[in-house]
Design brief:
The protein is built from three helices and five strands. With 121 residues, the protein is of the alpha+beta class. The protein has a single domain (3-97, 104-110), classed as Aspartate Aminotransferase, domain 1, CATH 3.90.1150.30. Strand 1 and strand 2 form a beta hairpin.
């Protein structure tokens, strides 16, 4: 999945549009649960070097809230990284370069939304 696929998926399934919170980062989109306004995802374009990846330039990623039980096992798979700029205990970063199957990305978006949806305001 690419960033537009994800934006469309979230809008269609959760009726949530991404918010641009930072003028200096126009390609960052934060997604909040409508009920409690808590973040369940953020799409960013980040320098590969900041993620520990080889090469120059930026790569699109999504950070999602994740059940801590799954994080360690996900990190053993291609396309998953420790959370960038978020709690590594409760969040995971997914590369949006095609290395993670679309169905996995969709499942993790749903998991993230469900986790955040249970949090009281």
């Amino acid at each position: 999945m690419n960033r537009q696929d994800i934006i469309d998926y979230i809008l269609y399934n959760f009726s949530v549009t991404g918010e641009r919170l930072w003028i200096n980062f126009p390609n960052y989109f934060v997604f909040r649960c409508a009920k409690n306004k808590k973040w369940f995802g953020i799409i960013m374009d980040v320098e590969k070097s900041k993620l520990g990846l080889k090469g120059n330039g930026k790569v699109d990623i999504i950070n999602l809230k994740c059940n801590p039980i799954f994080i360690d096992s996900l990190l053993h798979n291609k396309g998953y990284l420790p959370a960038y700029h978020m709690s590594k205990k409760n969040w995971i970063t997914i590369l949006l370069d095609g290395s993670v199957p679309a169905n996995e990305v969709r499942d993790l978006i749903c998991m993230s939304y469900e986790i955040v949806d249970r949090i009281k305001k």
